[in-house]
TrEMBL record:
Listed transmembrane segments: none
Source taxon at top rank: Bacteria
InterPro entries linked: DUF459, SGNH_hydro_sf
A Pfam match: DUF459
CDD domains tied to this protein: SGNH_hydrolase_peri2
Renumbered residue ranges of the record's region Disordered: 62-99, 362-403
GO terms, molecular function: hydrolase activity, acting on ester bonds
Gene3D superfamilies linked to this entry: SGNH hydrolase
SUPFAM superfamilies attached to this UniProt entry: SGNH hydrolase
Protein name: DUF459 domain-containing protein
Length: 403
């Protein structure tokens, strides 16, 4: 046992020594290999002639310049700056208030449903600067001519005319009338011939109230709507309105083209009265925006101004004997004996023979002087042209008068 332990101990020492030798040899080989890689490789010329291999010169240590860290710029998105300076924006001057209405201003009465309410607002904006015009709007959004039990326009209009005393009555109604019409005799369904006959009777009865009161009447047609059925019904009702109103001597104003495109289809966005693209109708395709109401009134404004005359135009000044400018009396023009008067010639005279009458006038006074036309026709000679004209070809000596 003792011999075995000694042998095992020796073997362990030998193995450790061998392992150390191997590690040292490996390190030496690695160092030589690195040195060879750093040295220049020997060529065939160096082997034959024994050129001395240059010594290895280690590279110099190059120090990189130390860059000082620069502060990063802070973006505007990361920091919110609060400007504590006083605002320097120029104050926009306020628009001057509209002129006050005159005591004797003419009144325009607008009645009807919700479309008429928008029309009244547009007319107020149109005549805001006209002190001689006042717009009186009496509208009921859910009213019409079918449901007289809800709101009776035929019974209300005479009282409104006597109270307001309008110079013009504007009616726009019918957007809520697409429903059954009930009369004391029977009930009529919408879109039937009996319905349109009974409805025309009510339209005529309402219009006759203004006609009998001797007030100019303007009936405004319905515009297009989003739904196709409602648009088709509006076209049919507009035809009925035009036919019955013109029979009574009223004026029908068609606003259809202002709210459809070139193909006649309903539009939400279109041009305003200045030609700029704006939104004209509401999201439901029935109501109107502020530019839409102003455009609706644009078609009626022309007729109202024509009926009201000077009161609707604030900048119009009537000239009479009190404000006419002073006219300067010019002295009479002395008759020049050298002027040759040519009698007028009838353009429908084929012979151009110088007729003595023109458009039934009196005979011309007889003169002994012959006109240039007579001299050309009878004698074939024209009088001498005046001096300085392009066809004057005489020499200067010819114009000198002989003593």
């Amino acid at each position: 046992m003792t011999i075995g332990r000694v042998a095992f101990s020796r073997l362990t020492r030998l193995a450790s020594l061998a392992l150390a030798v191997v590690i040292a040899a490996t390190a030496l080989v690695t160092v030589e290999t690195q040195a060879q890689q750093l040295e220049r490789r020997r060529t065939l010329f160096d082997v034959l002639f024994g050129t001395r291999q240059p010594e290895y010169v280690p590279p110099r240590e190059v120090r990189r310049p130390i860059r000082e860290p620069r502060p990063r710029k802070k973006t505007g998105g990361s920091i919110t700056r609060i400007d504590t300076r006083a605002p320097t924006s120029r104050a926009v001057p306020a628009a001057p208030p509209p002129p006050e209405k005159l005591e004797n201003a003419k009144k325009v009465l607008v009645i009807g449903d919700f479309v008429a309410g928008g029309l009244g607002e547009g007319l107020k904006s149109a005549f805001e600067d006209a002190p001689g015009v006042v717009i009186e709007t009496r509208s009921n959004g859910s009213s019409g001519l079918v449901r007289e039990d809800f709101y009776d326009w035929t019974g209300m209009l005479p009282g409104l005319i006597s109270e307001i005393r309008p110079s013009v009555v504007v009616i726009q109604i019918g957007a809520n009338d697409r429903q059954q019409l009930v009369t004391p005799a029977a009930k009529y369904d919408f879109r039937t011939d009996d319905w349109f006959a009974a409805y025309a009777t009510r339209v005529t009865a309402l219009a006759e109230i203004a006609v009998k009161a001797k007030v100019p009447l303007i009936w405004v047609g319905l515009p297009a709507f989003r739904t196709q059925n409602m648009t088709a019904d509006a076209l049919r009702l507009n035809t009925l309105y035009r036919t019955n109103i013109e029979k009574l001597g009223g004026e029908f104003v068609d606003v259809w083209d202002g709210f459809v495109d070139q193909d006649g289809r309903f539009i939400v966005t279109g041009s305003d009265i200045n030609g700029q693209p704006v939104r004209l109708r509401g999201n439901d395709g029935i109501g109107f925006t502020a530019p839409g109401k102003r455009k609706l009134a644009f078609y009626v404004e022309k007729s109202v101004r024509r009926l009201l005359g000077d009161m609707s135009s604030p900048d119009l000044i009537r000239l009479d004997a009190t404000n006419l400018p002073a006219l300067i009396d010019l002295p009479p023009v002395e008759e020049d004996k050298g002027i040759v008067s040519t009698p007028p010639i009838d353009l429908f005279d084929p012979e151009l023979d110088g007729a003595t009458e023109l458009l039934g006038g009196a005979p011309l006074p007889a003169t002994g002087r012959k006109s240039p036309r007579d001299m050309l026709v009878r004698n074939g000679k024209l009088p001498d042209p005046p001096v300085g004209r392009v066809d004057y070809v005489k020499r200067p000596l010819d114009t000198v008068a002989t003593p």
